[in-house]
Amino acid sequence: MTNVLSLRGVSKTFGAVAALTGIDLDVAAGQVVAVVGDNGAGKSTLVKILSGVHPRDAGTITFEGREVEIPTPAAAHRLGIATVFQDLALCENLDVIQNLFLGQEIRPLRLDDVAMETRSWELLRRLSAKIPSVRVPVAALSGGQRQTVAIARSLLGDPKVIILDEPTAALGVAQTAEVLNLVERLRENGLGVIMISHNMADVRAVADTVAVLRLGRNNGTFAVDEVSTEEIIAAITGATDNAVSRRTQRGRTP
Amino acid sequence: MTTLATDQQDERLRSRKEGLRGALADVVERARGGDLGVIPVVVGLIVIWTVLQILNPVFLSSANLVNLTLESAAVGVIALGVVCVLLVGQIDLSVGSVSGLSGAVLAVLFVGEGLPVWLAVAASVVMGAAVGWVYGQLFNRFGVPSFVITLAGLLAFLGLQLYVLGTKGSINLPFDSGLVNFAQLDFVPDWLSYTFAAVAAVWLFVSGLLHARARAAAGLSARSMSALVTRSVALLAVLAFVVWYLGRTRGVGWMFVLFVALVLIMHYLLSRTRWGRAVYAVGGNVEAARRAGINVKAIYTSVFVLCSTFAAVGGILAAARLAAANQSSGGGDVNLNAIAAAVIGGTSLFGGRGTAFGALLGIIVIQSISSGLTLLNLDSSIRFVVTGVVLLLAVIVDSVSRRSRTSHGRA
């Protein structure tokens, strides 16, 4: 499997704080990589570097075999890296269609709202989205509906890699299942998916690989099939000797 | 059972009435949710006109209304620029000074230096654009709040205006120049006015019909024929009445036509182009706009440039109307009238909400008050107080409807 996106030694500091130090990460086409870590582990900073919000201080980013710079969000769009942020970044005063096509409207000088509305419905139906009308302002939608709009928007530019920042954090049971189904579909379509998550059940349900960050450093990359939840948690907390790991150890020694 | 349009299939959507009644019901529904649009300003205008007409029967006379349209044009053009700045959630307090400076530059180049009038006009407009560009750079690079930048601009450009005018303090434009003719004497012939009205109505109908066809072909719900026809006939009736009534005396001035044309162009740019969407997006959620790949800095620069350019154009029109540029051009209440017109026209001070037509309606409200109170021989002190109260009312309507939108999920 060839890697569509590779990070080597990526670092970022904010003043005196080293938010990321020497991060390595690989994502292949058709692979779901879960990035997990405690609060302050640097997950959000990593997302922001990949989406062009913050520049990195050191290290290389290789995208489709070429070393690239991602100075701006627009550059990330052009490369084919789409990001769904935790705060979704939707404009509440604009309606669903306007939000979906924001920055990539069809026919810039004479907006083709019919084509955009048709595309919007296709997209939302494909995601089995439960949105009654695309003409209502986003302010009128529930949290799950907004998440769907945000994910649908990231798919418009035919990206190669999609970054989902805590996609299931604010969702109900059915909507979480829907989002996880959607992640499966993204993988089937050959997209690389980076999923930031706190929820181990979600990670185990859809991810192929788990990359653990701890205090801004890599703290292990595991194949989901070969690792237990306890081991992941141990890597997240940095505790090699706690109640959970001891019990695991006892279970393994015959 | 017939198949539903793609956008009407969700079972939770309440069934809409078909045709004209459905369209009307939609408007009522939106207004209840706090999406008032132009309703408050139209209601306000009717109230103001009624009161002023009762106080002085001359107010609604054709001659006075012709004057009102001509007086509206200059400050209206400035208000159009203010709308753009307010849409991104910023403000420009220096539009009055910039318009005064523009008038002064025009007069000095045209009368003092003897340049051709078109060159003097072009120089003034370019000067306005340059001012806006500087504002944009200051705002983007240093992150200084726009009201401080433009407050500094207000003083600085007032000083520059006085400097440009020099010791004379006032420069008269020759009455036989095309510019002064344009602002004072040029009226659209009646037949052409009616043609404009007819073209507008036909345009509204044809574009509406093509749009409805395209939507129907794409399987979306579309406006009914009856709604389209009613809309166009109503527009035709209103425009024809206005043209007829103004035509009883001098008619429709070319300067007012220019103002309306600028409003239409801005309406198109704001509602039908990618740039316009970006403006609303920046006003709604600047971080979301940035992440959507919109060049936020370029948008800010573009609206500051537009605003100052419109201020310069407004200053030229004001100088042409007065046939002079003097030290008080663009001073006094010009600044606040332009901002008040934008706000009264329904442009939200919170950003992301408002239309180009708001500038047109807002300035007519402001000029009506001004003209009505002048007719009553009332002092400008009272005019200021009344204008201030109306502005306050408009801002209250904005805030209250914003709260209502939030509770109805339309913010």
UniProtKB/TrEMBL annotation, chain A:
A single MF term (Gene Ontology): ATP binding
A Pfam family hit: ABC_tran
Gene3D superfamilies registered for this protein in UniProt: P-loop containing nucleotide triphosphate hydrolases (3.40.50.300)
Organism of derivation: Nonomuraea wenchangensis
Name of the protein in question: Simple sugar transport system ATP-binding protein/D-xylose transport system ATP-binding protein
UniProt keyword terms in alphabetical order: ATP-binding, Nucleotide-binding, Sugar transport, Transport
Domain ABC transporter: 5-240
Keyword ATP-binding: yes
SUPFAM superfamilies: P-loop containing nucleoside triphosphate hydrolases (SSF52540)
InterPro entries reported for this sequence: AAA+_ATPase (IPR003593), ABC_carbohydrate_import_ATPase (IPR050107), ABC_transporter-like_ATP-bd (IPR003439), P-loop_NTPase (IPR027417)
Keyword Ubl conjugation on entry: no
Automatic annotation (TrEMBL), chain B:
CDD domains: TM_PBP1_transp_AraH_like
Organism: Nonomuraea wenchangensis
Sorted UniProt keywords: Cell inner membrane, Cell membrane, Membrane, Sugar transport, Transmembrane, Transmembrane helix, Transport
Alphabetized InterPro entries for the sequence: ABC_transp_permease
A Pfam entry, by short name: BPD_transp_2
Membrane-traversing stretches: 38-59, 65-88, 117-135, 142-164, 191-212, 224-246, 252-270, 298-322, 334-350, 357-376, 382-400
GO molecular function: transmembrane transporter activity
Protein name in UniProt: Xylose transport system permease protein XylH
Cell membrane recorded as keyword: yes
Membrane topology of this protein: Multi-pass membrane protein
The protein's role, per its UniProt record: Part of the binding-protein-dependent transport system for D-xylose. Probably responsible for the translocation of the substrate across the membrane.
GO cellular component labels: plasma membrane
Localization annotation: Cell membrane
